[in-house]
Amino acid sequence: MSASTVPTEPTLAEVASGALVTATVANGKGDIPVVAETTTTPGLLVAPTVRRDEHGDAGFVGDFNVLHTASGKFVWSNGHLSLQHARAIAAALAGPDWTRDQHHLTTTPEVKARVLAAYTALFIDTDF
Questions:
Q1: CA neighbor of 67 nearest in space, from 58, 57, 77
Q2: Helix axes 83-92, 109-119, angle to 10 degrees
Q3: Which domain holds residue 55?
Q4: How many Å apart are CA 72 and CA 42, to the nearest integer?
Q5: Whole-structure pTM over 0.90, yes or no?
Q6: Residue at 31 is within a domain
Q7: What is the pLDDT of residue 65?
Q8: Which carries the bigger pLDDT value, residue 23 or residue 17?
């Protein structure tokens, strides 16, 4: 893939290999376009953590997060993840239908349980 070509709808093979796609991070001060990495969990991407400063300028804060593509919101609220951790969390969150809207996901017990199980497995039960 050339540097000027960024697929917006990756093939299954590209999804499995971590293809780069464009995405939008929802932000109260204005949405922020980013280049994110696909995951094996449909509906989730690994994206750079970006924020707008007091002047409205967007910038990379130096770490990564898991992005829910339908809402543009980060799934892992505490952020501050290494690329390796973000990839592992996206994989550990497989199960619920992350292609659903944000309201469904925030009100579904299965999703809350999956997030808690991923957090426990990755940060409490291991030396990760």
A1: 77
A2: 140
A3: 12-124
A4: 14
A5: no
A6: yes
A7: 92
A8: 23
Query: Tens of pLDDT along 95-111?
Result: 899 999 988 888 889 88
DSSP H/E element including 61: strand 58-68
> How many domains are there within the chain?
1
Pairwise CA distance, residues 83 & 63, whole Å: 7
Q: Is 4 within the bounds of a domain?
A: no
**Nearest-angstrom CA–CA distance, 37 and 48:** 9
Which two three-digit tokens encode residue 117?
Answer: 């199980």
Mind listing the pLDDT tens digit for each residue in 42-70?
999 999 999 888 888 998 988 999 999 99
User: What residues contact residue 10 under an 8 Å CB cut-off, 6+ apart?
Assistant: 19, 21, 38
User: Quick one: which of 59, 66, 24 has its CA closest to 45?
Assistant: 66
Asked if residue 26 is part of any domain, the answer here is yes
Q: Is residue 80 part of a domain?
A: yes
Task: Give the single-character DSSP code of 119.
Answer: H
The neighbour count for residue 93, using CB atoms within 10 Å, is: 23
Instruction: Name the DSSP letter for residue 31.
Output: -
The tokens for 7 are: 């697929």
